[in-house]
Design a protein that fits this description.
The chain is α/β, with parallel strands linked by helices. It is built from 25 helices and 27 strands. This is Glycoside hydrolase family 3 C-terminal domain-containing protein.
Length: about 850
């Protein structure tokens, strides 16, 4: 097997099963890039967490702490002076850990404990003949705790948290015992939890986004960081700052929202929660946050991961830059992964404009850039040879390679030796890596307490937090006739049907800890525990998530015919790890249709035809097109990929133990043919007529969702109706609970620029407030409005500015349900 083709992306695309003895390597995706100048005036924004959660921004760091990208400490410079070229190159290679069964004859040193220890000791050899290179002590590993590849590969003894910590300690002792004594940097995935077996599995990206609560999401990622650091992980990657603007794209499962404001608020709360107050990375509760994938990998042509991105610079800055600014310039995230696709024909892995001009100069990024597709520079004919690609990557600013590719191994050494790459560029990258290790305190203490790892990972407070997040992520889109919540004293029999009704693993999402080593109950198990003997639960699977087998329909009909209500749990499948052929969502699982897969809609139709009131519960990591269910079923609940406590959260929501307070963080279309379709359309699209065969409007708009009571919005007012271009005011609106039970309203503030020099979206979200209101109570919700944060645009000269004029501020309960409006003048 060609070692240059072994990478995380290649693994995902491998056509193998969990019991395979080998996997076919697939070429990695093209390096992404975009033409972004640094000439525009930077946006002056407040702390993203403070926008929604009211949390104060932690400072980026103290003056006495070494800057990763600035002048290094004496220790780092002394180490650099002692290092050979091979020593330096080893520090820049932190390979993705793959099981030996997938590696074949590759020199990748991750497949066995013996290979890993050899790399740490400096005994790994790459290249051939005169170009052979014995690497100095290795820089670290990526994903070492994820031995099973999230369930793809069976391993005889998955390591529990104590053993994960002991494994990391053993490798650190070996590293510290080498002549240079440089500690290892251990990186792992962290989309919605640490990946070591036993770690807490929180809801997946869109589920967390659906909470509309950045403060809660910050708490989730603080717990993720705590668990990761406890077992010896120092940086968590795949923390997504990109927007989810195309539901076809499988990797969109990691993202939080289609909206830049909401995503920026989430990122702004998350980074300080992970990196600690003042970015104190020496704390045993902190990890480096690696935001992905910079500057973007979607929306890509056709929704395909391997395709290019075509977007103008003004559109990029107007829509996509805000979360990155929140993460880097404001919160100080210290790691990112360079995009792998091409944008406007430019390759990010080889683009100084992106990785230096935009990232470091404009966004003040002060950390380490990791890359996973330097090979793409050759594939896209940006570089003619591996040595040219090495030079382009180093000059652009790729510091670390994850792919174990010759480009950053023996070919980089040859390029330096032959003078084709300035060794100063190599030193710059190594200096950044060593400084990050120093900021983490690893030179003083690279070890972790195995006892603490056992206590912290999946502790009771973290399990409770996973349950709270799952509860708050539930989005009720339809509840005709008040069918929900079900009442245990009136419902005697429930027919529980569907492929996701009794499958706890399918609730967990992608990149999850496997095996869980703790309970992850299915909806069936959770309902049975909740209801006990009071309500009979009759289960029928009905069908699979994929495939055409309808042999289970008869049992499903029989269960529904003899029940008071039918709950049909359908949706997507993410279990089985990267290599599962049955996954329908996740990395490299893009789709051309947004309809339910297999015969799941037919199952819904069969159950509905019995005449039994039917609730559809949809387990999904993307926006799906559900026109039949919306039109015909009385109740529709979006459960997302809700994590380890998702089964309980669904059960409690159905029976009213908790209220569905989630709102759609993405737009649900009627059909894939409407794409691209986000809520923030410009007037030409917002005012467009219908298609010949369907309306042009969304099926379910961004921000939609309902609870078990009703609200009235009234009394909108401003402290000041006229402010300057650097001014601010406050908007107030009264919210009254007009129902008979307590409930939660998610109040949303949208802004319209009434007249501008460029075409802008009709409305843009600029505020969210989630308020619990007692039945009959009236409360006042207040939103700060800051011109330089909320009223900006990117003009034709690519400057981010506030233009004078009038703005309409609208408050409502969804992007298509705006109840109160008021005008603000800016001069």
């Amino acid at each position: 097997m060609d070692q240059a083709k072994i990478s995380r992306r290649a693994l995902v695309g491998a056509a193998a099963t969990a019991t395979a003895t080998a996997a076919a390597a697939a070429a990695t995706a093209a390096a992404a890039a975009a033409a972004v100048t640094t000439a525009a005036v930077p946006v002056v924004t407040a702390a993203a967490a403070a926008r929604v959660a009211g949390a104060a921004r932690a400072p980026r760091g103290t003056a006495d702490r070494p800057r990763t990208g600035g002048s290094a400490s004496r220790r780092v410079e002394a180490l650099l002076a002692r290092m050979t070229t091979a020593d330096k190159i080893a520090q820049l290679n932190i390979p993705v850990c793959l099981p030996q069964v997938l590696l074949g004859d590759s020199t990748n040193p991750t497949g066995t404990a013996e290979h890993r220890e050899a790399y740490v000791r400096g005994r790994t050899v790459v290249g051939t003949g005169a170009g052979q290179l014995r690497l100095g002590p290795g820089g670290g590993f990526f994903g070492l705790v994820n031995q099973t590849l999230s369930g793809s590969i069976e391993v005889p003894h998955p390591l529990p948290p104590r053993e994960q910590a002991e494994q990391h300690n053993r490798l650190q002792r070996l590293a510290r015992g080498t002549p240079l004594g440089v500690p290892l940097l251990q990186i792992s995935e962290g989309t919605h939890g640490s990946l070591g077996p036993g770690a807490t599995i929180f809801p997946e990206g869109l589920a967390l986004g659906a909470t509309f609560d950045p403060g809660l999401i910050g708490q989730v990622y603080a717990a993720v960081a705590r668990e990761a650091r406890a077992v010896g992980i120092h940086a968590l990657s795949t923390v997504t700052a990109e927007l989810n603007r195309d539901p076809r794209y499988g990797r969109g499962v990691w993202a939080f929202s289609e909206d830049p404001y909401l995503t920026a608020a989430v990122i702004g709360a998350m980074v300080p929660a992970m990196q600690g107050a003042g970015n104190d990375l020496t704390s045993d509760e902190s990890v480096v946050t690696s935001l992905v994938t910079f500057p973007m990998e979607s929306p890509d042509v056709g929704g395909l991961e391997t395709s290019s991105i075509e977007i103008g610079e003004r559109a990029f800055r107007q829509t996509h830059l805000e979360p990155w600014r929140a993460g880097f310039a404001e919160a100080g995230a210290l790691m990112t992964e360079a995009s792998e696709q091409t944008i406007d024909g430019l390759a990010v892995h080889g683009s100084p404009k992106y990785l230096t001009g935009l990232l470091r100069d404009e966004l003040r990024f002060d950390g380490v850039v990791i890359g996973n597709d330097l090979r793409g520079l050759v594939r896209e004919h940006v570089a003619g040879t591996a040595q040219e690609a090495a030079g382009l990557g180093l000059r652009a600013g790729v510091d670390v390679s994850l792919a174990w590719d010759e480009i950053y191994l023996d070919q980089l050494a040859a390029a330096v030796r032959e003078g084709r790459v300035d060794e100063a560029l190599l030193d710059r990258a190594v200096r950044r890596v060593l400084t990050l290790k120093e900021r983490l305190g690893l030179f003083e203490n690279p070890y972790v307490d195995a006892d603490r790892a056992e206590r912290v990972v999946n502790c009771a407070p973290h399990r409770a937090l996973a349950l709270r997040a799952a509860r708050e992520s539930m989005v009720l889109l339809k509840n005709e006739g008040g069918l929900l919540p079900l009442a245990a004293d009136r419902v005697r029999t429930v027919a529980l049907i569907g492929p996701n009704a009794d499958d706890g693993l399918n609730l967990l999402g992608e990149y999850n800890a496997y095996p869980a080593l703790h309970e992850t109950p299915s909806v069936r198990e959770a309902l049975t525990r909740l209801l006990g003997d009071r309500v009979q639960v009759r289960y029928a699977r009905g069908c699979d998530v994929t495939g055409a087998d309808t042999s289970g329909f008869a049992a499903a009909r029989a269960a529904a015919e003899n029940a008071d209500v039918a709950v049909v749990v359908v949706g997507e499948q993410t279990k089985g790890g990267y290599l599962s052929p049955d996954r329908t969502d996740g990395e490299l699982k893009d789709v051309a249709s947004l309809a339910l897969t297999g015969v799941q809609q037919q199952l819904l139709e069969e159950v509905h035809a019995t005449g039994t009131p039917t609730v559809a519960v949809v387990v999904t990591g993307r926006a799906l097109a559900l026109p039949w269910a919306t039109a015909h079923l009385p109740a529709l609940l979006i459960a997302w990929l809700p994590g380890e406590a998702g089964g309980r959260a669904v059960a409690e929501t159905l029976f009213g133990r908790t209220e569905p307070t989630g709102r759609l963080p993405v737009t649900f279309p009627r059909d894939v043919g409407q794409l691209p379709l986000t809520y923030d359309q410009k007037p030409a699209r917002a005012d467009a007529g219908d298609y010949v065969d369907m309306p042009s409007t969304p099926l379910h708009a961004f921000g939609s969702g309902r609870g078990y009571t009703t609200f009235r919005h009234s009394g909108i007012r401003l402290d000041d109706t006229h402010i300057s271009r650097d001014g601010r005011t406050r908007l107030h609106v009264d919210i009254t609970n007009t129902g008979e039970r307590d409930g939660t309203e998610v109040v949303q503030l949208y802004v319209t620029d009434d007249l501008a020099t460029v075409s802008l979206p009709r409305i843009r979200l600029r505020g969210v407030a989630k308020r619990r209101v007692a039945a009959g109570e009236r409360v006042t919700v207040t939103f700060p409005v800051t011109a330089a944060r909320d009223l900006t645009l990117v003009d034709e000269r690519l400057r981010t500015v506030v233009e004078p004029g009038t703005f309409t501020l609208s408050v409502g309960s969804a992007s298509d349900r705006l109840h109160q409006r008021i005008s603000l003048t800016v001069s």
